[in-house]
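Quick one, probably user error.
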């Protein structure tokens, strides 16, 4: 078995479709000594790198007590238990590094709206 075949076995198939500008909650497993616990990190996605195979990662930023905190997670890591979508943001950039220089009060990301065709599709699916 080569490296590619081994990495294909480790890929997660039930990944949430999110991107830069979205607000998400990441449930990650933290190991301290012989104990394990789940830690939730909620923030705005600055970047998402697909990478090839298991190399994909994403960076989440939040403001905690007035200090900006960024954390990078691997998409297919066994330590990432769950990713929840809180809010979909509409941005025009793939990398939101400019948010690092803004104060927390001035960070405003527009919320993504459903188009009329998506609404109509969901109504027809619900009635069927």
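Nope, works fine. Designed sequence:
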């Amino acid at each position: 078995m080569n490296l590619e075949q081994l990495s294909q076995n480790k890929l997660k198939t039930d990944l949430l479709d999110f991107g830069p500008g979205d607000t998400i909650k990441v449930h990650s497993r933290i190991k301290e000594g012989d104990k394990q616990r789940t830690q939730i990190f909620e923030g705005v996605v600055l970047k998402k790198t697909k990478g090839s195979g298991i190399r994909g990662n994403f960076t989440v930023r939040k403001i905690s007590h007035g200090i900006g905190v960024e954390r990078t997670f691997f998409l297919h890591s066994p330590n990432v238990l769950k990713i929840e979508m809180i809010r979909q943001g509409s941005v025009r950039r793939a990398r939101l590094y400019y948010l690092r220089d803004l104060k927390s009060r001035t960070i405003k990301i527009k919320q993504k709206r459903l188009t009329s065709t998506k609404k109509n599709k969901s109504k027809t699916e619900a009635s069927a």
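The first helix runs from residue 3 to 10.
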